[in-house]
Structures are given as C-alpha cells and as structure tokens.
Amino acid sequence: MKKSKTPVAALIALTMLVSIMVGCSKDTKEPKDTQTNTATDTNDIIDNTSNTTNDKDIQEEKMFTMFNAVPGTEVPDDNRILRKLAELTGAWAKVTWLTGQSADERIGVMIAGGDYPDFITGATGTPALIDAGALIAIDEYWDAYPNIKNYLSEEDWNRVREEDGHIYLIPQFGIIQGKDMATYHWDEAFWIQKDVLIWDNFPKIRTLDQYFDLIARYKEAHPTTEDGQETVGFSMSSEDWRYFGVENPPLFLSGYPNDGACIVDPETETAIDYNTIPEAKTYYQRVNKAFNDGLVHPETFTMSYDQYISLLSTGRVLGTIDQLWNFNTANEALVTQGKIGKTYVPLPITFDESIKDRWHSPSALDVSNGLSVTVSCKDIEGALQFIDDLLSPEAMILRAWGEEGVDYFVDNDGVFYRNAEQRANYDNQDWIAENFVNQVYAYFPHFEGLLADGINAQDPKNQPNEFYDSLYPVEKVLLDGYGYKTFLDFLSSDEPNEPWYPMWSYTNTWTNETAYGLAKSKITELKHEWLPKAMMAPADKFDDIWDEYQEIYRTEVDIDAYLDELTAEVGRRVDIARSKNR
To answer: How many distinct structural domains can be found in the chain?
Structure first.
C-alpha cells in the first residue's frame, strides 16, 4: 500500500501498460528490464556465472502480470525473496500499481479496451470488472488447488459468491490462521505523534477538545521542528475515496464500529444515516474551529493524496485522522529519516468520555474486493497453481520472515527470532525493495495470525518475543510511560464484531443501476462538496452552510431506498449468523 515515487511515475505507467497487454507467459527477462516477449535464460537473473541450470527448468519458470488498483511500490526483478519464491513455485509476478488515475478510471480503460493483466485487484472497480465478464470463475477450477479451496470456510466462500453462484475473487486481508496476533492498529483513528504524548507526560486523551487542546499547546511550545520547518497541527486525507477523516468520524465518535456506510442500531437491527445526526454537526463544527484557530493545514481539503503523504513524511504534522494502511508510507519515511518520535499512535477519542471507543475491530472478511484471474490470462491453471503455492507454509514463511539464517534464526523450541541487524534491515525501505516481497506480494492471498506451525506469528513485528525488542528507545519510553504492552493497547479492542459487520463490504458491491446505489453515489458526491466547505468556512458562516447542506442532502438523496437496503442486508446477515449458532 505504498505510493509510487514521483520521479519514476512515467516508468511505472509504461511498465503497467506493457504488462497488461501481455498474457500469462513462460518468458523470463533480465533483471530490472521492462517486460518483453523474448525468452531469456533464467541464469541471467539468478547467477550469471553458473551454467548448471537445466534448460527444461528455465523454460518452465512462468512470469505472470499483475495490477493492483491502489498505489504501491515496484521492486526489481532480481529481488532476493522474489527469486527464492520463483525457485520454490516455478513462477513469479510482475506487479504494477495505480498511478495518475482513480481505480474506477483505470479499470474503465481496461474494460473499454478488453485487455487485462493475468491477475488483478480491482479495488472500487471490482463490481465493474465482474459486470464486464472480465474475471474467471475460480470455483470452477479450485478442486485441483486445495490451498485456495481451504483458504476460507465454506460459509465464508458463500459470502463471496455472486448472484450467479460463482466466485470471482479471493479476499486477501483479515484471514486469521490460529489466533489474531496484532500489536498495531491498522485501521482508522485520530493519530498523534509519539513525541507529543511524551512531552505532555503521557496524558489520557479521550475527547476532541482534549485532542485539539494538546495539539495547540504543543504547537505553541514548538512553532518549528528541530530541522527548522513550521509545525503543522493537524491534517487529513481528502482526495477521492481516501477521504476517511472527512467522511465517517461521527460514526466512530458516537461509539460505533467501522460499518462505514451507516450506523446499525443493535437493539432494532436497523440502519441509521449518521450524516444527519446531531453529532455530525458537532464534529464538523469542532474541526471548523480548529481550522479557524490555525491548527489545520490550510491546504488539507485541496491537496492530493501524494501531497498529503509528503506533508506527513516531513514530521511537521502533529495529528491526523486516517486509516494507518492509508498513510503508513509516511510512517516508514519518518523511520528511514530517523524521526521515530514523529511517527504516530492512535487515540481512543469519542464525543464523551463515557462512550467506549470502537475504533478497533477484530479482523473481518471483506467480500467486496480481492485477487482475481482475468479472462486475458492464457494459463489459468498455472496462475491458480501459483496462488496455491504462495499459500503453502514454506512460501508464507519466505513472504513474511525471509530466509532462515539470513533474515531470522530459530531457537531450540522452534521460535523465530532476529538480531539487531536483521530488525534494522526490516525497517529500511531501500533494503526491503531489494530483498523482500512482503509489500509487493501483499495483494496475493495470505494469512494473518499464526504460521502453520502454530508457534510463530505471520508478521515478525507481531511475534511476542520480537515486538518489544524491535522497538526504538523512544517507543519503549512511550509504552512504558503508559504501562502498555503494545500500541494496540491505546484503544479498546475487546468488543467482538456484530454479525452484520462490516456493512461497507456490502455497499462496495453496489453500482448505479439501483436506487440505493444511486443514493450512495449522491451521498458521496454531496459529502465531497459540502463537508470541506463547512470545515473551511468562517466560523460565523458555518451554521448557514451546514443548514444548506442538510437541506440539499434531504432533497437529493433517496435515503429511504438506501437505508431500507442496508437494513435488509443487516437482517440477512443476522439470520445467517443465528442459523449457524442453532
């Protein structure tokens, strides 16, 4: 989930274009070259000095193309673990990422041309790919690929099925093997720099007023950063679908989990529109005050996503509201610069201290998005075999931990551990690009939680013996100051998911061919237009702008069609859960 670096944007775009026009192939290539149809001796990639590789083995190494409709970072073709996985599986993938367009725009171009890569993650363009007949039905093949078929339970696979009874995608995230080992919160929250909390002697921050007051006091005491840059109090991501901090804080601040599309009343099991509740006005008016007080970066609601990430990467911004996976590129950049205290931790903020925060939820299945094999693939069986092989225990260890003796060691009890140098490598993004695939292969299906051995965590940073040892001194000071064991302890994390959770996995499948789908699109359009306008308004104009927004919202949105469909889906999911528990 990394953004592409600007200087190589043109190269990435070119590579993407070439990649999607080439079907499944057994061709190989020189390291770091663009893809061609000319077969190249695999020895050129692995070891130019060796002539012992069997020619038959060379021809059997397959190269597949893959496009993920999210920003990301490419790796060289001679990446060490990519090569090791190719040796293990007999295949590898040339992965390209979204750049310069929205997911819907890029997917629309592909559909119009009828040309697709072998693998695709469509993001918000997934429903259009399914409607266009661009994806193969995985369930027609999976009997020959047990790792794929057994990746989910039959019940969960049935949740992924389309109305025609087929399965066109494999979810990649939130699939827990064994037990959840999370030590970090990767989802949405109000975030604050570690240095700010240490400076204020480890305060308990529970409300919006406390949050912005802390930011204001720290900013007054530190008008510039240590390297002479002007301190920025607060910002958020606001471009396109990444406007999480703009869209749904009223839901969280009211004490509800991230259903995204609505609040669900747990007593009546009905959907409620949080865009028109009184608490919504309370939130946006509070941000309006912060904006007029000079705490919010003036270009917050007009800057691009890349500009937002660049701003956070300077270490100037004290707080943000966002999904961690959406801005973790900035965290990594700060670590690379040695600015560990400028990285962020989540806070359990609600409207009132009596409200229990629900920012963190256990992992949940997203049935709206996943990895698909397209109809352009000329070797469907080979593509599915590659996915199947990447889910093997051996491949999962390589993908997450690397090579034994090089990237980690194993003690007498079978527990994986690393030394200081190995941990430092894992935090070096340049080293990762040359040696690891945990980011570039992140959109292939994988497990979270435990490895197949039932002993070690899938992610080294979630390994109990590794987590604390891998922390930087300032992070140990912070956790020790609060008496916490992990960064997840900053939030409440003991509430189970309700049977309907998450509702966004349903609305993400909607198109504009229905009244409720059109209502969703209109809601998105109006929120993009009016919420930034309200938050940036002069304080004495806020009420008028808010009232006008609410009137237009009530007039132009078919909210009954929207909420009725959501309530029906809540009922369907509850019925499934209750029948399972009988």
So the answer is: 3
